[in-house]
Amino acid sequence: MFEQKEPVSHYVSVEGYEIHVTEWGIDNPNAILMWHGLARTGRDFDHIAQALSKNYRVLCPDTLGRGLSQWAKHPENEYCFEFYEKIALKICEIFGLFMFDYIGTSMGGALGIRLAGNALKQNINKLVINDIAPELAKPAVERILTYAGQPPAFDTMDELEDYLRTIYTPYGYLKDDEWRLMCETSYRRMDDGKITVHYDPAMVQQFVHHPQDYDMWDLYEQIECPTLLLRGAGSDLLLPEWAERMTTIGPKAQLVEIPACGHAPFLNKAAQINIVEEFLKS
Length: 282
Description:
The chain is 35% helix and 20% strand. With 282 residues, the chain is of the alpha/beta class. The protein has a single domain (8-136, 203-281), classed as Rossmann fold (3-Layer(aba) Sandwich). An 8-stranded mixed sheet has the order 1-2-4-3-5-6-9-10, sandwiched between helices. Strands 7-8 form a two-stranded antiparallel sheet. Helix 3 crosses helix 4 (107-119) and helix 6 (157-167) packs across helix 7. It is globular.
């Protein structure tokens, strides 16, 4: 008899789109919603989700246009935080999340600021923001757009893995099997048989049609739940002065810097996972 192993994949209808959600720890009463970065997928959280699933039900969606979720029919209007918020609220409704913790990396952290400062202010118990501020550093955005807007194509998975190892070097140390998992959970094969990354390049239109989307200091000041801010010590996206400011206003976040890491901590190491776990338990 087939026995379902975790994680479990769900495909749910949200705002007219099929959205993929990975679920861990299904039978646990306490829940965590995790949201990935700009050009990534919910499978980036496999390591920490598996660790936390001993005590939590963990949901990791693929944002519209990423991973196994459908692509936007109207990129200029739907690749933005207003639409991502609608997706998040519907996912909470579908999966019965009423009181839960939230962990967001980069773009997912910015979405967490928006949700915890407004629409889900009364529903998020604890917030973990992984390496992003309520503002973006222009050079970092330009760096991201150089690879995210025009993803290259490759003949082999080995070539794709080499590419991922190059552009995501700031994540810090990953084992060989972790790089391979990233490769296998974030690729798609095109009509010509070549391989590329598993997202819609048009998702970068957020920066063109919604240039103020990441300006969230006002929303950050509205957050009331306990907040943990993680920063890669070498991050070019979360500037040190912004991280310091985030400890003095709004939720007055607890700041932890991750050494030997840039943007963004991958949350794959026991030390990083322990920091998050201790915060959630406190």
